[in-house]
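Hi support team,

I'm opening this ticket because the web form for multi-chain structure prediction keeps timing out on my end. I have pasted the exact lines I submitted so you can reproduce it. The total is 571 residues across two entries, so I didn't expect it to be a heavy job. Is there a limit I'm missing, or should I split the entries? Thanks in advance, R.K.
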Amino acid sequence: MRCLIFVEHSDGTVSESALELGAMAKSIGAEAVGLICAADPGAVNALAGQLGSFDAVIGVADDSLATYNPDAAARALTAATEAHKPDLVMTSYSAAGVDLAPNVAIRTGRQMVGYVSGLELDGDTLNAMSTVYSGKLVARTGMDLPGIVAVMPGAVKADGLSGGAPAVEMMDVDLSGLRMRVTETLVPENTGVNLADAEKIFCVGRALGGTEKIELAENVAAALGAELAGSRPVIDAGWMPKVRQVGKSGTKVKPRLYLMAGVSGAPEHLEGMANSELIIAINSDEQAPIFGTAHYGAVCDMFELMPALTERLTAGK
Amino acid sequence: MHIAAILRLNPVLTEELEVDEDGRDIDREWIGLELNPFDDQALEQAVLLKEATGAKVTALAAEAEGGERLLKTALARGVDEVLLIEVGEENVQLSSRARAPLFQEALEGLAPDLVLTGVLSTDDIYGELAPQLGALLDWPQVSAVSNVALGDGVATLQQEYSGGISARIEVQLPAVVGLQAATQPPRYVAGSKLRDLLKVEVPTVEPGADFGADLADATELEVPDTSGGAEMLTGDAEAVAARIHEILVERGLV
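Hello R.K., no limit was hit. The queue was backed up. Here is the completed structure from your submission:
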């Protein structure tokens, strides 16, 4: 059995998620073949050198692949899938993986499963576990191969560099007439808010309901000496600036304390904070998936809890 | 310029979800439905683009129930036209893969310059409709997008990666975009505006295309086992606050 893994990279470094996909392929007894798209063969080789656990690498080099280009990458992954006919195509469930897995599934006539948290091989059937309904349910899908999966970052631990650099085979893909171009890479401005290095974070979620009660959250953060953060709905609703977002499309954090109120714990949020040393979650919904990840939890109303906690913290100083 | 916004209903996720008897679907008897939050962003972006450029906006849905009300909300939000694709009342559980050929057919008829829909929907194992439509229509597609602007034959948009990094991408039209966040948060619609639309007829179309073949029959749902998760603190807010404070003191965190 052979898995073709779309290898994401930035600034000359392969992503952790690519190494995780390699480990996942090995866990079902498959060969791991990486697809590296980069600007030139030298860059492909340098990246392949970081994939010691992989069995082989297919390289596609073109100026348009210097940074991730959804149109070019979809063509390259489609071409590699059609040429090499892997049993399973694997992408991370990242922005690129969201673009590529369903798109290439249609282009190649394969079935796909997204939000994958685990794989088991049962004869010719691949059982894929997916996190659906924002983590409230798990779907178990028996997929006949060949297929495609998009795997949640952090679903398995990455392999270390266990072997030498895999052999690289370059492949020609027609990338003429691309219908999009990347004009600029944007990095966040330094705003003085640094969640990534914060020792303590107090994060509030959608249940905050608006900006009217944000002062209650600010008071908890101040009494705790913590940075205030928000989950994606809080940022998308404009209640807090983007720089305070924790999660998949925000900042990944690993503080000593991650206290959270009104955050359900969607997989996209967990991806950004699940490695925190101590996680304490308050939610009014006893079925909130965050209780599966937190160390301590309490089912209670955040608007009653926040002032009570502020008072305790202030009195205890 | 013509923009199509694809809207989907999702179960309200703050409610308790249960799996039905055969384990293939959620128990829908008491479940509320709401506009998928990411489709809400797509709808807002479509209306913002209309206000900025004078583009026409058509909102599309393919729902077994609740589709009319959903599309009336879209009219109240400022879209020009709506179209409900009839899927049959019995098809309450349709994956994005099943519905994709129906949307493809409708979009080929409408021939919009830009298709906007939410980057994901959490209610099936495919979630991501935009990349499927990009492949079916053979149009360029970008997901995880914020900040869409329209130019002459192109859309300029921002694709968001982890760590707050993003890329500015110029895409030739027609194109399909999976939206993460609109340039501004979705606007509030007054109840009176919705009441004014009660008598409006929502146009419907019967699809000629078949549902896409998906893995619905090969998928079983279960409630995740969270035992071994959090140690639960009990009592009222005062008691929980006191216990949290104790834990923080024990760990030297305050």
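A quick check on our side: The first strand of chain B starts at residue 2 and ends at 6. Let us know if the file doesn't open in your viewer.
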